[in-house]
UniProtKB/TrEMBL annotation:
Keywords annotated in UniProt: Aminotransferase, Pyridoxal phosphate, Transferase
Assigned protein family: Belongs to the class-III pyridoxal-phosphate-dependent aminotransferase family.
The enzyme's E.C. designation: 2.6.1.-
Name assigned to this protein: Aminotransferase
A molecular function (GO) term: transaminase activity
Length: 329
């Protein structure tokens, strides 16, 4: 959105509103836009003056069907009246229906889902699963990555948000993201991402204590500058992980559920990750978020994260069940 200046005649200039906002809200991501958003519909948000503003951010990058989609609104209202959430030890039809539907569209082998509350939580669960499955603890990601701002997810995030919080999780490593516009490695005047990847993993091997558990990556780095991984890179990255007994976690918060023209961005390269996490686009502006795993990982005799399975969020599950037909249309 473009920053605009409010005037005293504008309802956006409500002095009491802004005074209370400054006094009671903690803001760490920059300044707020000088407008008061009253409602949203379709591709637009509307400020206090009734002005329609095209929402290029699609809410928090998640309004895949636009704001206030009538079918989604109806499902939210239905579940708010009937059954909105449950204790995680109980099951309901929308949750199982959603898991079944997701299994039908996920890359081959990703058969089981863990429904959670946020994208960061999905990545936390994925990292924990990788550590439990491998018995190791070192996690590698891209130097321009964004995976969340909680614990392990924050430790794997390098594009921003690292200053002032003390040490990251032990065993956190980063490699350069392949960037054809400003290549670090060239051959015959062309970007040589293979040489860059080989060199990066040579450095990782030298730093590792022999406990490499996982590599977590975005197929298109979002906050890092919308960097699209070159064709073939994901397959090469998966091979590097397999050689070392690491799991490949793909974070498709921004790219999943059709945003690249395919249901999942990893399908362009024909790569099936060991763990796939989905959030923003999956929720079409509502919960849940998801960690989807290879069947062999979930059937491995290891103990999964306690307290992570939130299988009772009926409203979000119902929304997703309704959103898939709408997306296909």
């Amino acid at each position: 959105m473009t920053t605009t200046t409010t005037t005293t005649s504008s309802r956006n200039a409500d002095p009491d509103f802004w005074q209370r906002a400054r006094r009671h809200l903690i803001r760490y991501g920059g300044t707020f836009e000088p407008m008061i958003i009253e409602r949203a519909q379709g591709s637009f948000v509307y400020d206090a003056d009734g002005r329609a503003i095209l929402d290029f951010t699609s809410g928090q990058m998640s309004a895949l069907l636009g704001h206030g989609h009538p079918e989604i609104a109806a499902v939210v209202a239905e579940h708010a009246r009937s059954l909105d959430h449950l204790f995680s030890g109980m099951l309901s039809r929308p949750v199982v229906d959603l898991a079944t539907r997701l299994a039908g569209v996920a890359p081959a082998g990703l058969e089981r889902a863990m429904l959670l509350s946020t994208g960061a939580e999905a990545n936390e669960a994925a990292i924990k699963m990788a550590k439990l499955y491998t018995g190791k603890y070192e996690v590698v990601s891209f130097a321009q990555s964004w995976h969340g701002m909680t614990g392990g997810a924050a430790s794997a995030t390098y594009s921003a948000g690292r200053k002032g919080y003390g040490p990251a999780a032990v065993g956190s490593f980063a490699i350069p993201a392949p960037y054809p516009y400003r290549p670090r490695f060239e051959r015959d005047g062309r970007f040589d991402w293979q040489a860059e990847l080989d060199y990066a993993f040579d450095l990782i091997d030298r730093q590792s204590s022999g406990n490499l558990a996982a590599f977590i990556a975005e197929p298109i780095l979002s906050s890092g500058g919308l960097i699209d991984l070159p064709l073939g890179y994901l397959a090469a990255l998966k091979a590097k992980c397999s050689e070392r007994g690491m799991l490949l976690i793909l974070d498709e918060a921004q790219t999943g559920v059709g945003r690249t023209g395919l249901m999942f961005a990893c399908q362009r390269d024909g790569v099936v990750p060991d763990i796939l996490t989905l959030s923003k686009t999956l929720g079409v502006d509502d919960r849940p978020e998801l960690t989807r795993c290879d069947h062999s990982i979930l059937t491995h005799p290891c103990r999964l994260p306690e307290g992570a399975l939130v299988c009772g969020y009926l409203c979000g599950s119902g929304v997703l069940g309704r959103s898939f037909p709408a997306l296909r249309r």
